[in-house]
Write a structure and sequence with these properties.
- The chain is α+β, with helices and mostly antiparallel strands.
- Helices cover about 20% and strands about 30% of the residues.
- It has six helices and 27 strands.
- A ten-stranded mixed β-sheet has the order 9-8-5-7-6-26-19-22-23-24.
- A hairpin with a 6-residue loop joins strand 3 and strand 4.
């Protein structure tokens, strides 16, 4: 009996030893799996544990770092621009919340229009889409010779599209006149709900940016511009900490009202929340995405001052902006205002921004909103 007791004791020890050995192997596997290739692995003790995620591939437009898996969608591809309507009848817009960079400037009569560029996200619905002006195409050329979606053009823009040339998706024979409920897998369409509610026709067109990218690549516009100049980005939030505070920004392009742009600093995530126009009580209205209901927020706000002129003899009183050359600018990030200058050496050259000592601005890794304001209206940009 004593002998049998010892054998049982040895058996218990052997089982414990085997369990310990298996646990050791599992722990070794757990620690030596190349974690940067996966988001999660199975914990040998039964719980899922997040592993270290390596984000080291920067978006060339925003500087935001992505994983290898995330960047596979957009790496080595050119951006797509879209002309988005900002008439009061066109609101709320769809898709702006997904744009990497948005430019805002007056199209006519004090009414602003947006040029939104998409690279890391291609929304299935963006718009309403409107026509394009020549000066917006100068920005299209500098953004890596991007593809551009628009419906219609000014006479000056048509000459530019054909002669510069420009990768105009609208010139690929798109049919945007079908009235349909959305979402749809078409390149573009007219929103049935807006048409049924007697919204003017020019405020009803939408585009599927994902489908348009396929259309552009079929036309041979795949790839990207290897000469594209990337702005400088920083990771130090305190770099501009000694500059004046900028908690609220009010921009009246021509006058205060429906097309005023307002940005308010949100310290909790170091961003600026965007507002558009005022309500009946005179309070800024949050600028929200029509699909998600989320308010647009931006990591970097730029106010760029440029000379605006009326085109002589134009029957629609169209405008022109001098976007080549140099001028003044304000940069807003980290709740601070930085006086700056801008310089653009050629049509396809990137607009570069410098502080008053001549050093290149180092931006936050984040999305951009660039409001181009007539230089005669510099006093209509107020900062608090």
């Amino acid at each position: 009996m004593q002998f049998e007791h010892k054998r049982k004791g040895y058996s218990y020890l052997a089982v414990i030893g085997v369990i310990f050995a298996i646990a050791t192997v599992l722990i070794a596997v757990w620690f030596f799996i190349p974690k940067e290739r996966v988001n999660k692995v199975l914990n040998p003790f039964g719980k899922n544990k997040d592993t270290q995620i390596v984000k080291n591939i920067p978006n060339p437009l925003t500087g935001i770092l992505h994983t290898e898996e995330e960047s596979g969608f957009w790496l080595n591809k050119r951006p797509i621009g879209a002309m988005v309507n900002n008439h009061t009848d066109a609101r709320p817009q769809s898709g702006l919340i997904h744009a990497d960079i948005v430019y805002e400037m007056v199209a006519e009569g004090g009414i602003t229009r947006y040029l939104a560029f998409f690279l890391t996200q291609d929304p299935l619905k963006a718009g309403p889409i409107r026509s394009i002006r020549e000066y917006y195409l100068v920005l299209v050329k500098e953004l890596g010779d991007a593809m551009i979606m628009h419906i219609g053009w000014s006479p000056q823009a048509l000459v530019a599209i054909e002669s510069w040339p420009v990768r105009s998706l609208n010139r690929l024979g798109l049919n945007c006149e079908n009235v349909l409920p959305d979402p749809t897998d078409l390149d573009c369409w007219r929103n049935k709900s807006r048409v049924d509610n007697d919204i003017p026709w020019e405020h009803t067109a939408y585009a599927n940016i994902s489908q348009l990218r396929k259309k552009g690549e079929e036309a041979g516009w795949q790839g990207y511009d290897e000469t594209f100049v990337v702005w400088s980005f920083k990771d130090d939030v305190s770099k501009y900490s000694t500059y004046p505070s900028a908690s609220e920004i009010y921009i009246d392009f021509w006058y205060e009202g429906d097309y005023s742009a307002i940005f308010k600093y949100n310290a909790s995530d170091n961003s600026y929340l965007r507002y558009l126009g005022y309500d009946q009580n005179g309070q800024p209205q949050p600028h929200r995405d029509a699909e998600t209901g989320e308010q647009i927020k931006i990591g970097n706000v730029i106010v760029q001052f440029a000379t605006e002129t009326a085109i002589s003899g134009d029957d629609k009183n169209r405008l022109d902006y001098e976007l080549e050359g140099s001028g003044e600018a304000y940069i807003f990030m980290d709740g601070k205002k930085i006086d700056a200058t801008w310089n653009k050496s050629s049509r396809a050259g990137r607009t570069l921004f410098y502080d008053m000592n001549g050093a290149p601005i180092q931006f936050n890794r984040g999305k951009f909103w660039i409001s181009i304001v007539p230089d005669r209206n510099k006093t209509q940009v107020e900062i608090y």
